[in-house]
Structure formats: structure tokens, C-alpha cells
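PROTEIN DESIGN WORKSHEET
SECTION A - STRUCTURE
LENGTH: 112
C-ALPHA CELLS:
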């Protein structure tokens, strides 16, 4: 005895599976962001970009573009949400940066 699968069942299954893919992506992104190791200020890229974990300790003389209101959480490269203590960064891929940190690549987050 053969079981036949209707075209309707295949299309319906495909639509359900397609709708689930973005949901799985959201869960994976959240889990991977939480598991990122913190960026070491001694990292060569971090040093080259003047990264500090506390923006209040930026040497303004060595970084003339720095302003007191600048910190990672207000940067366009910061991947966290408001209130996150740390999150990923587009500049330092594979690492998390503290919300209160700063580097020379800081750029105003749109709408902030």
C-alpha cells in the first residue's frame, strides 16, 4: 500500500517551515550574542582604534573627536538594545563590548 502526499500538503508544509526559519534565526542570534567573549583592550585592533572599556577615561588630548556623550551604547556599530550591559559590535566581530565603552570609530546611532 502506498501513501500519496498531496501537492496541497507539500505546499502547506513548505509555508509553515518557511515561516519558522526567521524565528529560529532570532533565537540563534540572541544565544550567540550572549556567548561572545568580551573584547580585550590589549587586542591589536582595539589598541589601534583607541578602545577603552569606560568612556569617561578617554584621553581627550589623544582623541580630539571624543565628546563626553559618546559611548558604545549610542554608537551605530553597537548591536545591543537600550539597557544591555554589553553586546556585539560590527567593528569588533566575535567580541562583546561594554555599553559604556568607546573607540575612535564611534558614529551617532540613528534616532539616538
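SECTION B - SEQUENCE
RESIDUE ASSIGNMENT:
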Amino acid at each position: 500500500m502506498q501513501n500519496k502526499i498531496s501537492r496541497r500538503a507539500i505546499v502547506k508544509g513548505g509555508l509553515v517551515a518557511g515561516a519558522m526559519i526567521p524565528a529560529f534565526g532570532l533565537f540563534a542570534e540572541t544565544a550567540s550574542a550572549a556567548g561572545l567573549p568580551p573584547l580585550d583592550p590589549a587586542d591589536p585592533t582595539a589598541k589601534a582604534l583607541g578602545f577603552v572599556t569606560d568612556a569617561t577615561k578617554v584621553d581627550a588630548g589623544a582623541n580630539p573627536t571624543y565628546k563626553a556623550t559618546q559611548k558604545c551604547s549610542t554608537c551605530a556599530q553597537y548591536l545591543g538594545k537600550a539597557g544591555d550591559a554589553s553586546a556585539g559590535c560590527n567593528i569588533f566581530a566575535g567580541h562583546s563590548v561594554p555599553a559604556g565603552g568607546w573607540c575612535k570609530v564611534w558614529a551617532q546611532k540613528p534616532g539616538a
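SECTION C - NOTES
DSSP finds two helices and two strands in the chain.
The radius of gyration is 21 Å.
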